[in-house]
Amino acid sequence: MKLRGKLILSMGILIFLTVFLVSSVSYVFLQKAYDKNIQIEKEKLDQIIKSQVECMTGVLQAEYDKSREQGINEKEAIENAKYIVRTTRYNNGTGYFWADMADGTNAVHINPDVEGTNRYNTQDEKGNYFVQDTIAAGDKPDGGFIDFYFAKSGESEAKAKRGFVKKFEPYGWYIGTGNYEEDMLPIIQEELDESNKSCLQAITATYCFGMAVFVIAIIVTYIIAKKMADPIKAASKRLVGLSQGNLNDNVAVSKSKDETGELTRALASTVQTWRDYISDISASLAELDKGNLAFDIEMEYLGDFAPIKESFQHTIYKLNDTFRKLNMSTKEVANGSDQMAMGAQALAQGATEQASAVEELAATINEINSHVANNAENAKQTSLQAQTTVKELETGKMYMNQMINSMNQINDSSSEISKIIKTIEDIAFQTNILALNATVEATRAGAAGKGFAVVADEVRNLANKSAEASQNTASLIEATVKSLHEGTDIAGKTAESLDRIVAYSEESAKLLMEISKASQEQASSISQVTQGIDQISSVVHTNSATSEESAATSEELSSQAQILMDMVNQFKIRGI
Fold it and tell me: Which of 2, 8, 126, 304 has the smallest number of CB atoms closer than 10 Å to its CB?
């Protein structure tokens, strides 16, 4: 939607809402006035029935005073009062009176059947205890109004009724009367209709006036919006061209002194300022295109455009400084690249020599690794043989202990044999004595004892031989026992020597195990050293190749630096 349409629509909505609000407020106040008028008319109706009851109580009071003055007995006076209440009519005979007692007993009614009945708890169709309400209203100092529903005489349908009750003190009667709403409304209907007609006329006039104001306001708004929108539309069209890069077309300047005129004049000034700025920037860019970095921007840039000038000028200074430093750096790069190429060549040669030395070192380390591995294996085998020797020495020690035990047993047996030999010597000695005695007896016997003497001689010879043999055996056994003692001592010493040999062998085995373990660790370490040497050799070869590539790159860098210097020399730079 265009600005003109928005202005017309917004003003139309605003005016419409204003007219609607004023009309609505007028309608509300007129309706309240109408309702107030109805209330006033109803109060008039209430005043009519109130005045009727007051007139009735006044009449009854006059009759009561008259009966007292004339000496009429109370019964006759009450009957006379009942007659007056029962027969009195108003409002063309539709209005009548009734009277109830405080206990709810009806005293007077137009229907004779109702008189004397108690209606205290009687309810109407809406559930109202109208007799109780009657008594409550009559107990008020000036009486009171009640609303209830009651059927008309001759009708069965109960209808809304408005009544007024006031107590007549001499007889304790609650005198009341009332009017049906449908009978009272026609009395005030003419006034109500007139009031309603005036209200409708006022509302209609208000709405018509509002519509007239709305139409006039729309027309005026349209004219104003057109005067405002046309210059704005032209300015908007020019801004569209400006956003598309059109700085040549002029701006249609409005001659009005209001905001639209100021807008068009400001737009024209803006376009001209932009033209000047763009021309100055284009000229500066042309100088940059020529390679000129030694110029300054002379034109003044205003407001938020000032940072553009500062930024552009700063960029020129920055480029100038950058190219100046770049020129110096290219010279240094050229010199440095030459030195780098020479250093790279020397590094490549040194790396080649280092690679050869590393290869020789790797060969030596491999040979050492082989010897250490053989030593480790030999130490391992020696350790295994030492362990086997320890086991054999422990077996020999066990056999030596068994031999010592056997020699001890032989020694013990030799002691027993000595005892037996001693016994044999004693037997030989006794036998020799017996033989001697036999010889003596044989001699005494003479010829008869020759044979016995021969036997005695043989027995003595045998005893001598036995003694000699036992002595020889004893000598041998003693020599054997002595030898056994010496052998036992030697065996003990041998066992002790074997214990020491076993201990030394175990220590040797442990040392050999540690030597074997250390040799294996040395072999592993030398293997890792070999791998490291191989890696170093690989790195040295790589360094050698990289050095050669660096030398070539340095030569190429020197060439590119010279090209860069030639390109930088194409620019005009301050400070060179």
Answer: 304
Rounded distance between C-alpha atoms, residue 564 and residue 325, angstroms = 12
Rounded to 5 degrees, what angle do the CA atoms 362, 368, 374 make?
140
Concatenating the DSSP letter of every residue in 316-377 gives HHHHHHHHHHHHHHHHHHHHHHHHHHHHHHHHHHHHHHHHHHHHHHHHHHHHHHHHHHHHHH
Residue 28 in 3-state DSSP? helix
pTM of structure: 0.34
Q: Which residue is it, tokens 């020694």?
A: 411
> Collapsing DSSP states into helix, strand and coil, what is residue 88?
coil
DSSP collapsed to 3 states, 504-556:
HHHHHHHHHHHHHHHHHHHHHHHHHHHHHHHHHHHHHHHHHHHHHHHHHHHHH
pLDDT tens digit sequence for 448-496: 766 767 777 777 777 777 777 767 777 777 777 677 677 777 767 776 7
Residue 461 exposure: Cα atoms within 13 Å on the Cβ side? 6
Tell me which amino acid residue 336 is: G
How far is the C-alpha of 220 from the C-alpha of 442, rounded, in Å? 203
Burial of 71 (0-12, 13-18, 19+ CB in 10 A): exposed
Q: Phi first, then psi: give them for residue 164, nearest 5 degrees.
A: -130, 135
Q: For residues 576 and 574, give the distance between their C-alpha atoms in angstroms, rounded to a whole number.
A: 6
Q: Which of 259, 541, 241 is nearest to 251 (CA)?
A: 241
Phi, psi for residue 528 in degrees, rounded to 5:
-65, -40
Task: Note whether 107 and 171 are within 8 A (CB).
Answer: yes
Closest by CA position to 226, among listed 11, 37, 395:
11
Compute the half-sphere exposure of residue 40: CA atoms within 13 Å on the CB side of its CA.
9
Print the SS3 string covering 98-118: EEECCCCEEEECCCCCCCCCE
Give the pLDDT score at 98: 92
Q: Is the dihedral of CA 539, 545, 547, 549 positive or negative?
A: negative
**Amino acid at the residue 559:** S
Q: How far apart are CA 183 and CA 190, in angstroms?
A: 14
* DSSP one-letter string for 116-154: T-B-TT---TT---HHHHHHHHHTSTT-EEEEEEEEPTT
Q: Which residues of the chain have pLDDT under 50?
A: none
